[in-house]
Amino acid sequence: MMILRSQIARISKSSKLSVNLSLRYQSTLINGQSYSRDEFTNAPSSILALTERQLHQQPSHPIGILRSLIENSLNNYQHLTAPSPIVSTYKNFDELEFPEDHPGRSLSDSYYLNKTTMLRTHTSAHECDVFKKGTDKWILTADVYRRDEIDSSHYPVFHQMEGACVWDDTTKNVEKAIEEELHLLEKALAHTNVITEDVTVNNNPNNPYQLSQRPEVSGLIVKHLKMTLNLLVYNLFKHAQNVDAEPLKVRWIEAYFPWTGPSYELEVLWEGKWLELLGCGVMQQRTLERAGMGHKSGWAFGLGLERIAMVLFGIPDIRLFWSTDARFLSQFESGKISKFVPYSKYPPCIKDVSFWVNKPFHENDLYEIIRECSQDLVESVECIDNFVHPKSQRHSLCYRINYRSMDKNLTNEEANDLHASVIENIKKAFNIEIR
Ligand code: DAH
C-alpha cells in the first residue's frame, strides 16, 4: 500500500485532533503520542481526523440514541466506552487467535499506523482487557475502522457494541445460576411477538461445544445467549415494525469466530430480506484464560450499530451519520426514535473512468483514493466493465463514480474537478494508463 502525497497533505482544517503526517517525518503524532512509520503505515489523515467525532458519545445523534436504547435494554450490564481506536495488532488479532493469513490483517482491509499498531477493526479487540478488570457482565461501545467499498451502506468508520456475560464455572451452582436467569428471560420473552427460526444444531460436529466445558453448561450458556439477544433485537425492532400486527422474525445460523465455540450469527427479517445483525458465541476458554478468567465460562457478541440505526431512523445513506449539517442533526432528540425527513436529494453527477491495469491492484486502494480526493461527495462506486483484451491480453477496468452531495447542489464543473483529481491520483498510485 502506498501513501500519496496528496493524502498526506490533507489534514482536516477544522480538526482539533493533532495529527501530523508527512513524508518528511519518521513518525505520526496523534494527541501527543508518536507512532513510528514503516512500510505498513496506511491510515490517511482524513480517517484519523474522524477518530475525534465520537458519534456514539453524543446523546442526540442517532448512533448515541441507539446506544442508549441498547444500554437501557441491557440495564443489568456494566456500560463501557473505549475512547481511543488505536490498538496493537496483538489486541485486534493475535489475542483472539486470528490465523496469520486471515484477510482482515491485510493492508487492503485494515488501517495501520505501523506494523504493530492499528485502528481497531472491531470492538472484540477490547474483550480480554475488560475481562482482566474482573467485569462479568458488560457492554462496550466504540468506533471501528475498515477499508471497504463505497456505497450507501459502507463507510470506513462505523460503530459496534460488544457484550459479554460470564459465570464462575468452578462451583456446582453455575447451572442453577444460569437457569435462574433463563427463567427471567423466558418471562420477558413471553410478552413479545417474535418468531425465532433456529437452524443451528446443539453440539454440531462442525460447530461443537468445547471439550473442556461440561456439555450441560455449554447448552445453558447458548440458551442464555440466544434468549438475551432475541429479547434485545425485539426491543430495538419494535420501534420500526408494528409488532402487535406482525410478529418480528429472527433467524439463528451457525458461524465461525476464532475466539468463540460454538459460534453463531443472528439475522432479522426486514422488508423481505434477512439482515445480518451480529456475531456471537461461547467464549473460548483459552481466550478467557488469557484474560485471567479461566475459572469462568460465558458468551460474547458484537453488533454493528449503523445498519440498525438506518432501519430505525429511516436513514437512507450511511454518509448522513457524519453530516454536520443542522438540517440533519437537529432532527434527532435524545431518547427518541424518530423518522428522518430527507431535506434534499440533489441530482447525481455520474462519471466513468476506464483504464488498463499493468499490475495487480486492490479495489479498496482505489476506493480510498476516490474518497480522499472527494471526501463525502461520492455516493457510490461500481465496477461496470472488466475485460481482458483477447489479443494483447491486457486487462481493462471501468468504474462508474456517482458524485452527489447530501447537503448542496454539486455543479457539473465541481464534479469535473473532483473527477480530474481522482484520475490524476489513481494514475500516480497505480501507474496505469487511462483509456
Ligand atoms: N467482532 C466480530 C465482527 O466484527 C463480531 C463478533 C463475533 C463479536 C463473535 C463477538 C463474538 O464477541 O463472540 O465481525
From TrEMBL:
Q: Which reaction does it catalyse?
A: tRNA(Phe) + L-phenylalanine + ATP = L-phenylalanyl-tRNA(Phe) + AMP + diphosphate + H(+)
For biological process, the GO terms are: phenylalanyl-tRNA aminoacylation
Question: What transmembrane ranges does the database entry give?
Answer: none
Write one Gene Ontology MF term: tRNA binding
InterPro entries, alphabetized: aa-tRNA-synth_II, aa-tRNA-synth_II/BPL/LPL, Fdx_antiC-bd, Fdx_antiC-bd_sf, Phe-tRNA-synth_IIc_mito, Phenylalanyl-tRNA_Synthase
List the keywords (alphabetical). Aminoacyl-tRNA synthetase, ATP-binding, Ligase, Mitochondrion, Nucleotide-binding, Protein biosynthesis, Transit peptide
Q: Which GO terms describe its cellular component?
A: mitochondrial matrix
Does this entry carry the keyword Plastid? no
Q: What is its EC number?
A: 6.1.1.20
FDX-ACB domain sequence ranges = 344-435
Role played: Is responsible for the charging of tRNA(Phe) with phenylalanine in mitochondrial translation.
Family membership: Belongs to the class-II aminoacyl-tRNA synthetase family.
Question: What protein is this chain from?
Answer: Phenylalanine--tRNA ligase, mitochondrial
Protein's organism: Wallemia mellicola (strain ATCC MYA-4683 / CBS 633.66)
